Every structure is written in structure tokens, then in C-alpha cells.
Amino acid sequence: MAMMWIRIILLVAACMLPLSVEAMVRHYKFNVVVKNVTRLCSTKPIVTVNGKFPGPTIYAREDDTVLVKVVNHVKYNVSIHWHGVRQLQTGWADGPAYITQCPIQPGQAFVYNFTLTGQRGTLWWHAHILWLRSTVHGALVILPKLGVPYPFPKPHTEKVIILSEWWKSDTEAVINEALKSGSAPNVSDAHTINGHPGSVQNCASQGGYKLQVQPGNTYLLRIINAALNEELFFKIAGHQLTVVEVDAVYTKPFKTDTIVIAPGQTTNVLLKANRAAGKYLVAATPFMDSPITVDNVTATATLHYTGSLGSTITTLTSLPPKNATPVATNFTDSLRSLNSKKYPARVPQKVDHSLFFTVSLGVNPCPTCANGSKVVAAINNVTFVMPKVSLLQAHFFNISGVFTDDFPGKPPVVYDFTGTQQPTNLRTNRGTRVYRLAYNSTVQLVLQDTGMITPENHPIHLHGFNFFVVGRGQGNFNPKKDTKKFNLVDPVERNTVGVPSGGWTAIRFRADNPGVWFMHCHLEIHTTWGLKMAFVVDNGKGPNESLLPPPSDLPKC
Question: What is the per-residue pLDDT for 8?
Fold first, then answer.
């Protein structure tokens, strides 16, 4: 009898367990609408998702399928990119306008349908057309599967921290004016933390974001740099941060008081609320180690211990100077993949395609521009020209005349890329050119900055893949010496990497995702100027290695 009761109790307990250990389908609706927003004591209309700035956070678990219906209620064409999502076989849902889809026209809608296969961590979403991502962006939080713990101490609470920029002017007017003149656009008027610049001069009423903490608790901060054009330092007065993940890949934990984060990147840190009760400054400030104008306004927020009086004086902190290259380099060099048994770093050991891409600025003729010329940007001296229909449609349906697959695997002219004697001819070639890869082939890509006009740090983002950052250095890449120093054991794995100013970065990845995949600088002005290209990955064998057909509601051009 006792045994029977034990069985009944066990059966009832089993019935009370959550049944949904399997992957779920999660539905979201994004209404793209204009909303009046006040910052820096002035109001302007901005494009938003669901009237929110930043936009809503999408929550899902590893292996879940996400369906987001995007309805365009504004005058601009719209597309949404799910930054860092692999989009295995579902390139139609990747989002960059004229690369994987035609944009969603005013009054139209499109359902983005994708599965988060084998991914967990912090990613984000943003508009991928014009400069709309300045206000059209938000977090994409992928939790581990039910019952799977983090490979670090479980935090009491998780918080999303989105860093961004704010212009008093309409950002579309800012870039249009720059394109008309042929020169660089005006820099932003402020940086923001979760949509708020914090305390700024000449605007005393402007409040800032408040991060409420309980003494003794540990917090997981999911930090995203959604800024258009600026790398940022992030720091909290009096507190150490433990880095545990970047770009939705776990890292070996390390402590720091300052993180550096480029546009497009995400960083997860553990924050232990172990100080005396009070208020502590949270700050985001620009990193720029080249002679280029940036927005020097520091964004501020407050870490507020529960029970502290509002009148408590905020504890301040010293911030790194904007050209603090050693601080940035030290942070970047500390990043390593966790490379555990459960989360291995599968670094390609053999290379099928060894590519060398120079990243540079240039000057091309422009009869309608103020000076008769305009600033452009290029990879291997090719300034990318956007097509009129999407590259993925042209690839899938074999539409000729849209692109050529002759993107150069090395620069047309070899010179002292980072030296003081730069070529006198700053003109670039224009074209819609892609580089073709066989399914499952391995790629080593060295990204080399140049001194054309000026050296600069370029955060390069590759759609459709994660890659391993196997090496980086200053000056010109030396294949004989530098290759020997590559880390092929536990290099950091990510989707967006900074090419250091006057230096190089080497990455490796496996082309195991059929489709057309955009690669571009995540400084929006450089993308606008043409610092972009695409890889075409051909289908492999059978349906599991092939691009799926397009959805029936794919927008038309």
C-alpha cells in the first residue's frame, strides 16, 4: 500500500513538472511607428517599434522558433536585421535591405521566421536600411534551454543595458546633407544609456537611467552597443565587472573595471553589489584613437543601492581618455573562448580560402557635391554598389546582371598599407561584387586597416556566421611571422570584430550556411560610403545543406 502511494505521489509530481522542455514558437508584433520623443530639452519625431526607444526586448530560449510580424506605418522603407542570429538555411529572414530581401514598403508587412539553433546569450535587432537603426533597435535575449545552467554563478537578476547615440536633428536629414556635400556627417549630440543621456549641460531637467540594486546580490548586465558610429568605454564607479560572454558566446571569465564595446557588439558582465549603500556613476564615453571628430558627451546613469536616499551624493569615477588605446587593447586581448567540453571552440585548423582584405577610405569624383568630390570607403579598393533587387533573390532565382562573383581575394595593389607614404590616387573601383564559397569550406580572412586619408578602428560584422578571432596586431600583417602566433585553441568567437587603427585582425570561419551573407563595417557612415561586400555560399548536398525557398510574403521591390 505504501509503495502504491509513493508511486501516486511521484506520478503527480511528474505531472506538475513543466512539459515544455522542448523548443517553443514565440510570436511578436512590431508596429513601426513615428513617436515624438524629448531628449536634451528638445522634442523631435523619431521612428520606433511599438512607440518605444529603445525598442522592445525579444525573449526566447535556445532552439526556439521566433516569428516577428513587422508592420510598416511610416513613410520610409523598412527592414529589420536580427544581429548575430545564424539564420541557418533561413537567409530570407536576415534582414539587410537589398541583400537578403527587398524592404518592407510603407503600409506593408512581413513575418520574419527564424530558429535560434544552438545559440544562447545576448544578441540584438535593428533596422538595416538608411540610418533608421539610430532609434529602431532593441535587445534579443536568448536564454539557455530549460534546466541548463549558465557556466558561471547564477545571477539574482538580469538587466539589459543599451548604449546608443542621440541627434537633436533628424538622422535621415543628417546623412542626406552629408551625402549632398560629399563630406562627413555631423556627429551626434549625446550618447545614451537605455535611451537617456543622463545629466548634460544646459538641460538640468533631463533625467537618467537608474539601475536599482540590492546589497549582496549579483546582476547579469547584458550590454549592447547600438551606437551608429562610435566605439564606447563603459564603466561603473567603484565596481569591478566580470566578463562572461561576448556576442552570445561564453568566454573565460575575467575581471575589469572598464569594458570597450564597438557598434554591433554585445558583452555580458556580472556585477556584484558589494559596496556601501549609496549611488554610483555609470558612464559610457567614446573611444577614438585616430584624428577623427567624435561626440565627446559622456552618457551617465546611476547605480542606486536600495534604501539610499535620493539626496545621497553620487560616487564618481575617472574615465579613460578617448584615445586610451592601451585600455582598449588590454580588454580585447583578455577575451578567450570558454572552450569547455560542453561549449568547445571548433576553430578550423585547415584553410580552404586564405583571403586578405584591406579596409580603407577614398575619394571619388562627384559633380553634384560641394567640392566636386566625395568621401567613399572600400574593401580591396571596391566600393560596394547596392543593387535594385536583393542579392539573395538574384542568387536563388539565377537572375543575371545583378551581381558578379569576382570580388578580389587580395588587394589590387600591394603597398605599405599603414605607412606614412600612402598612394596619391585615392579613387576606388565601384561594383556589386561578391566572393563565392563552396558549402562547408573553411575561410581565413585577414582584415587590414590602411592609412588612406586616415587610419581608423573598423568594427566589421559578418552576417550568417560566428567566426574565431585568431590574431590581431599593429602595422602590416606579416604572413610568415604573424601566422605562427595565431591562437587556434581558444580564440574568442564572435560576429563583430574591431580592426585596430593602423593594424590588422585575422578571423577564421566555416561556410556551413548556404545563402548570401553581408559583411560590412558597423560604423554606419562607412557602410553608407561603401565599406561592404557579400559572400555567396552555395548549397551543399541534400535538403539539410540547402537554402530554403523564400516565404510567400517576401516583400517585393
Answer: 39
